[in-house]
Design brief:
By secondary structure, the protein is α/β, with parallel strands linked by helices. The protein has a single domain, classed as Glycosidases (TIM Barrel, Alpha-Beta Barrel), CATH 3.20.20.80. The protein contains 16 helices and 13 strands. It has an eight-stranded parallel β-barrel with strand order 1-2-3-4-5-7-10-11, surrounded by five helices. Strands 6-8-9 form a three-stranded mixed sheet. A two-stranded antiparallel ribbon has the order 12-13. Helix 7 packs parallel to helix 9 and helix 8 packs antiparallel against helix 9. The protein is globular, with a radius of gyration of 21 Å. The two termini are 21 Å apart. It binds D-gluconic acid.
């Protein structure tokens, strides 16, 4: 079992989860600042105001990456640091641009390849207030295009760009479940095909168009001279039939992935939404104009894959209920025969199952004709980790096993199944602000002591990563 000699590995983070310094150097508020201020939205009542203080500790974070042996680092830009009000006619904040440009210079100086995510959920708040943010196709996609162009121009040394992180979460968590900013809930009972019932699907559509516009700008104006690559990052869980004998459950396994991944990947690779979504959602799902198809189809230089867990899938009959965004099915931790998908973690939705990772890599590769894949996130929380004293939290054997098993499953998919994975970024470099879960849920390979000035302590899993990849990556031929 082995990985190619040019394989990149490292760690991932996101701006709002680690930076803090939310009102420093001219940064404008994002929808997450606003959302966190609403009582009851974040489990521990916290916010990203301090987070890991990474905005002020870029040198320290880079030193840590270097110490751990990372070859690459994925981070996101806070849009409202570089254009505080967000829009194409709003002022640019040079201090924000300089910050990220310097950061990229410093990473490269340390021999670490940067992967930049342009949008990891923290939309400038002004755009939400001004025109409804992600819901407004014309305005949002034009403003995103403008922001993307500014970043491509300002940071020419970055060669790996990710337009959007997990649009599924923006659309469903932000506009259906209401658990993420801006906290809308779609209500199908009130208006079966009305605006509120359509919101998640409109947001998904607008993100695809904005992605397509940014990719066009990159390919036409920057790629010829800069020579980099650009893609989108999608999330999706692996699926197993609840009843392995039941064809309806087997079919529902595909449907579940289609409603998560193919919602975005089918338009990008084939030019339209999956038939299963059209069938179930009807006119709630927007349609692509010809011009939009031209923008979106073929717009990935690589596939960014965020992956954490697996579920057993049980089909449902009849009219889909409120959570029809799953594809009219149930997701379960136990199958018909009482087999358990994996052990509990601190995250209710996450149960380790490394074989699922290999299966999903194969599913994606077959459906989309073996695209180049970067695994842009993979990792786990640990049940009760926040209750442990520091010394015990550093011995995170559960996380070590998770990474070992998942990375080996990936290497098997590469070596034995012909899947084209070229990089892997563990989530996350640091314990950080886990969105609606606040700080109780920790995903870092590095412990952050929030009570003692955000001091960083690498856990066992942090130190395991280099030997793990060294044992798998082929030595370059000389
Ligand atoms: C994501 C999220 C991360 C989460 C991680 C763990 O892209 O899924 O960006 O921000 O912290 O997924 O839940």
């Amino acid at each position: 079992m082995s990985l190619p000699s040019d394989f990149l590995w490292g760690f991932a983070t996101a701006a709002y989860q680690i930076e803090g310094s939310t009102d420093v150097d001219g940064r404008g508020p994002s929808i997450w600042d606003t959302f966190c201020a609403i009582p009851g939205k974040i489990a521990d009542g916290s916010s990203g105001v301090v987070a890991c203080d990474s905005y002020k500790r870029t040198k320290e974070d880079i030193a840590l990456l270097k110490e751990l042996g990372a070859k690459c680092y994925r981070f996101s830009i806070s849009w409202s640091r570089v254009i505080p009000l967000g829009g194409r006619n709003d002022p640019i904040n040079q201090a924000g641009i300089d910050h990220y440009r310097q950061f990229v210079d410093d990473l490269l100086e340390a021999g670490i390849t940067p992967f930049i995510t342009l949008f990891h959920w923290d939309l400038p708040d002004a755009l939400d207030k001004r025109y409804g943010g992600l819901l407004n196709k014309e305005e949002f996609t034009a403003d995103f295009e403008n922001y993307a162009r500014l970043m491509f121009k300002s940071i020419p040394k970055c060669k790996h760009w990710i337009t959007f992180n997990e649009p599924w979460c923006s659309a469903i968590n932000g506009y259906n479940l209401g658990i993420f900013a801006p906290g809308h809930t779609s209500d199908r009972n009130k208006s079966p095909v009305g605006d509120s019932a359509r919101e998640p699907w409109i947001v998904g559509h607008n993100i695809l168009i904005a992605h397509g516009k940014a990719v066009k700008v990159y390919r036409e104006e920057f790629k010829p001279t800069q020579g980099g690559e650009i893609g989108i990052t999608l999330n999706g869980d692996a699926t197993y039939p609840w009843d392995p004998e039941d064809p309806a459950d087997i079919e529902a396994c595909d449907r579940k992935i289609e409603f998560a991944i193919s919602w975005f990947a089918d338009p990008i690779y084939f030019g339209d939404y999956p038939a299963s979504m059209r069938k179930q959602l009807g006119e709630r799902l927007p349609t692509f104009t010809e011009e939009e198809v031209a923008l979106v189809k073929g717009s990935n230089d690589f596939y960014g894959m965020n992956h954490y867990t697996a579920n057993y899938i049980k089909h449902r009959k009849g009219t889909p209920p409120e959570d029809d965004f799953l594809g009219n099915l149930e997701t379960l931790f136990y199958d018909k025969n009482g087999n358990c998908i994996g052990p509990e973690t601190q995250s209710f939705w996450l149960r380790p199952n490394a074989q699922g990772f290999r299966n999903l890599l194969n599913w994606l590769s077959k459906r989309y004709n073996y695209p180049k894949i970067y695994v842009t996130e993979n990792g786990t929380s640990l049940k009760g980790e926040s209750d442990l004293p520091l010394e015990q939290a550093l011995e995170d054997d559960f996380r070590c096993k998770y990474f070992h098993d998942y990375v080996h499953a990936m290497a098997k998919a590469v070596e034995e199944d012909g899947v084209n994975v070229k990089g892997y970024m563990a989530w996350s470099l640091l314990d950080n602000f886990e969105w609606a879960d606040g700080y109780v849920t920790r995903f870092g390979v590095t412990y952050v002591d929030y009570k003692d000035n955000c001091k960083r302590y690498p856990k066992k899993s942090a130190r395991q990563m280099k030997p793990l990849f060294d044992s798998l990556i082929k030595k370059a031929e000389v």
